Amino acid sequence: MGKAEDLATRIRNEMAQGRYPSGTLLPSVRDLALKFRINPNTIVRAFQLLIEEGLVIAEQRRGFFAARDNIANARAALRDAAAQSLENAVGEANISMSPKEIRTHVERALKESMRNSA
C-alpha cells in the first residue's frame, strides 16, 4: 500500500471512530503534509480516494469536509476491508493448516484484540 492509501486508511479510521462528524473541516493539505512529512500531492491523492468512497467532499478554496453519513460509511468500508482481509488470510492458512488450527488462531487473535481494545 502506498502513502496515499495509508493516509486515507488513517483518516477513514478516525472517521469511523467519530472524530470527524458530518460537515467537519478536515485538516488542510499543507498541515497534513507538514505533520506527516509527505508531499502535498500525496495528501491530495488520499483525499481523492476518500472522495471516491463518498467520505469526503471538496469545496473549492475552502478545503475538504467530512461528508454526510461519513461515520457509517467509514465503518462499512472498514468492515468490508476487514472481511476481505480475513477471507484472504483464511484462504492462505487453509493451504498449510487444518480448519481446527485456523479456528484456534482466529479465536486467539480475537481474544487478544478484545483485550487490547478494552
Descriptive notes:
There is one protein chain. The mean pLDDT is 90. This protein has one domain: Arc Repressor Mutant, subunit A (Orthogonal Bundle), CATH 1.10.10. It is elongated. The protein starts with a helix and ends with a helix. Helix 1 (3-16) crosses helix 3 (40-52), helix 1 (3-16) crosses helix 4 and helix 2 packs across helix 3. The chain has helices spanning 3-16, 29-36, 40-52, 70-96, 99-117, and strands at 56-59, 63-66. It has a two-stranded antiparallel ribbon with strand order 1-2. The chain has five helices and two strands. It is mostly helical. A hairpin with a 3-residue loop joins strand 1 and strand 2 (63-66).
Summarize the structure.
This protein is mostly helical and 118 residues long. The chain has one domain (1-118): Arc Repressor Mutant, subunit A, CATH 1.10.10.10. Helices cover 69% and strands 7% of the residues.
What are the key terms here?
5 helices; Arc Repressor Mutant, subunit A; mainly alpha; 118 residues; two-stranded antiparallel ribbon
Fold blueprint:
Blueprint: H1 3-16, H2 29-36, H3 40-52, E1 56-59, E2 63-66, H4 70-96, H5 99-117
Antiparallel strand pairs: 1-2
Helix pairs in contact: 1-3, 1-4, 2-3
